[in-house]
């Protein structure tokens, strides 16, 4: 589950990570009042107005602006709130900005130069270890750095059984070229950041940039946090941070029916039980000349209500020209799924696209007979090859 920058910073702060302070606002008036409060607390007229959406690259899209006085705060907030912000991570459609973060200016003058770093903590699933990824080249062009000069991206592997060791935090601070107070503060920052990542059951903490201020303090200027959905039952306070307005409406609806759904850009809707089988199903759709319109895993206990909900979600996509249902009957019997398909078909009414049903496993023969005798516009298959051929046939119609 993605959360907003201001929410991620609140989590970091609760674990002792120093952050760029800010106040969230969902109107121009609130933004102005927030700027006044920031001046009271930090003594500067300058603030940064930052669009709050679930996407990176906001600065490149015009979603992060410096304001030097209240008039500029009003102007910047007016321009950013309500804009359709397009970044490299939103796609061409962009995302609507409904709130902004009025943040303190941390690039103040001092005895030494400011410096931006990149630091993230994430899971390397192949190795079963956590990784701290870091670079001296933080800021808006980190993707270009990773592409053009990958040697500037460093990684530190952490065994989750023993956690981050002190020498590892010191190694990271040393590789970032720090010394003195900045070195000590970076060690504290890294230690607190990893603790936050581990304790919150997150799948990613990305801080870009991490700033060394002119008085050698280390703080998080941004926070991109992804919480593991499977662990949210342990963190109801974090689950409450979910902003469904930032998510695809179809994916939100699917989650309400306990369906694992991801919207894609193809023309063949998929309804499958099991993530591995869903991936294989998308492969056979590609082989047949189609493109998968979604990833949809109905789970191991599919019934008529589950199938109906899945149908309703898939059919909301106008690009879908056919639906492929691919069920392996292990926990659930194939004939029950077949009856669920028939019941859902009757309940929904006229389904405007052809449906291919491939059922294999327990009671697959009985399931095929139910489908064939239903009189519905449903094509049955037993083998994956048959299902692929059926997809090719219906797409050619």
TrEMBL record:
Annotated Gene3D superfamilies: ATP-grasp fold, A domain (3.30.1490.20), ATP-grasp fold, B domain (3.30.470.20), Succinyl-CoA synthetase domains (3.40.50.261)
SUPFAM superfamilies membership: Glutathione synthetase ATP-binding domain-like, Succinyl-CoA synthetase domains
PROSITE patterns reported for this sequence: SUCCINYL_COA_LIG_3 (PS01217)
Source domain of life: Bacteria
InterPro entries linked: ATP-grasp_succ-CoA_synth-type (IPR013650), ATP_grasp_subdomain_1 (IPR013815), Succ-CoA_synthase_bsu_CS (IPR017866), SUCC_ACL_C (IPR005811), Succ_CoA_ligase-like_bsu (IPR005809), Succinyl-CoA_synth-like (IPR016102)
EC number, UniProt record: 6.2.1.5
Pathway note: Carbohydrate metabolism; tricarboxylic acid cycle; succinate from succinyl-CoA (ligase route): step 1/1
Note on how the cofactor is bound: Binds 1 Mg(2+) ion per subunit.
ATP-grasp fold succinyl-CoA synthetase-type domain segment(s): 2-210
GO cellular component: cytosol; succinate-CoA ligase complex
GO biological process: one example: tricarboxylic acid cycle
Top EC group: ligase
GO molecular function: ATP binding; magnesium ion binding; succinate-CoA ligase (ADP-forming) activity; succinate-CoA ligase (GDP-forming) activity
ATP-citrate synthase/succinyl-CoA ligase C-terminal domain span: 271-389
Keyword presence, Ligase: yes
Residues at which Mg(2+) binds: 208, 222
Catalytic function, reaction form: GTP + succinate + CoA = succinyl-CoA + GDP + phosphate; succinate + ATP + CoA = succinyl-CoA + ADP + phosphate
Cofactor: Mg(2+)
Keyword terms, alphabetized: ATP-binding, Ligase, Magnesium, Metal-binding, Nucleotide-binding, Tricarboxylic acid cycle
NCBIfam families registered for this protein in UniProt: PRK00696.1, sucCoAbeta
Subunit structure: Heterotetramer of two alpha and two beta subunits.
Function noted in UniProt: Succinyl-CoA synthetase functions in the citric acid cycle (TCA), coupling the hydrolysis of succinyl-CoA to the synthesis of either ATP or GTP and thus represents the only step of substrate-level phosphorylation in the TCA. The beta subunit provides nucleotide specificity of the enzyme and binds the substrate succinate, while the binding sites for coenzyme A and phosphate are found in the alpha subunit.
Protein family (similarity comment): Belongs to the succinate/malate CoA ligase beta subunit family.
PANTHER family in alphabetical order: SUCCINATE--COA LIGASE [GDP-FORMING] SUBUNIT BETA, MITOCHONDRIAL, SUCCINYL-COA SYNTHETASE BETA CHAIN
Name listed for the protein in its UniProt record: Succinate--CoA ligase [ADP-forming] subunit beta
Species of origin: Mucilaginibacter xinganensis
């Amino acid at each position: 589950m993605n959360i907003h920058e201001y929410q991620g910073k609140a989590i970091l702060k609760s674990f002792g990570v120093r952050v760029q302070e800010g106040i969230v606002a969902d109107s121009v008036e609130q933004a102005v009042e927030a700027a006044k409060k920031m001046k009271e607390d930090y003594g500067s007229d300058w603030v940064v107005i930052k669009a709050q959406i679930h996407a990176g690259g906001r600065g490149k899209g015009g979603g992060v602006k410096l304001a030097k006085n209240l008039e500029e705060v009003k102007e910047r907030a007016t321009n950013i709130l309500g804009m359709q912000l397009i970044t490299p991570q939103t796609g061409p459609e962009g995302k609507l900005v409904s709130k902004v973060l009025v943040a303190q200016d941390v690039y103040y003058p001092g005895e030494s130069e400011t410096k931006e770093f990149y630091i993230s903590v994430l899971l390397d699933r192949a190795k079963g270890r956590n990784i701290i990824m870091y670079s001296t080249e933080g800021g808006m062009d980190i993707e270009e750095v990773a592409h053009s000069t990958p040697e500037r991206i460093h990684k530190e592997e952490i065994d989750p059984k023993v956690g981050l060791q002190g020498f590892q935090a010191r190694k990271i601070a040393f590789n970032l070229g720090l010394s003195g107070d900045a070195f000590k503060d970076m060690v504290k920052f890294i230690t607190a950041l990893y603790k936050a990542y581990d304790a919150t059951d997150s799948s990613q903490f990305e801080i870009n940039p991490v700033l060394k201020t002119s008085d050698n303090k280390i703080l998080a200027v941004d926070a991109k946090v992804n919480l593991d959905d499977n662990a949210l039952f342990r963190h109801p306070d974090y689950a409450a941070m979910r902003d469904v307005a930032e998510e695809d409406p179809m994916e939100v609806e699917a989650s309400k029916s306990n369906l694992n759904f991801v919207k894609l850009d193809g023309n063949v809707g998929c309804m499958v039980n099991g993530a591995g089988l869903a991936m294989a199903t998308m492969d056979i759709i590609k082989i047949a000349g189609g493109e998968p319109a979604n990833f949809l895993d109905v789970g191991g206990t599919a019934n008529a209500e589950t199938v109906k909900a899945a149908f309703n979600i898939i059919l909301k996509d106008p690009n879908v020209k056919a639906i492929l249902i691919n069920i392996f009957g292990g926990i659930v019997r194939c004939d029950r799924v077949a009856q669920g398909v028939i019941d859902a078909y009757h309940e929904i009414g006229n389904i405007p696209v052809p449906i291919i049903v491939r059922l294999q496993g327990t009671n697959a023969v009985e399931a095929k007979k139910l489908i064939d005798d239903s009189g519905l516009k449903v094509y049955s298959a037993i083998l994956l090859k048959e299902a692929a051929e059926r997809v090719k046939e219906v797409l050619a119609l």
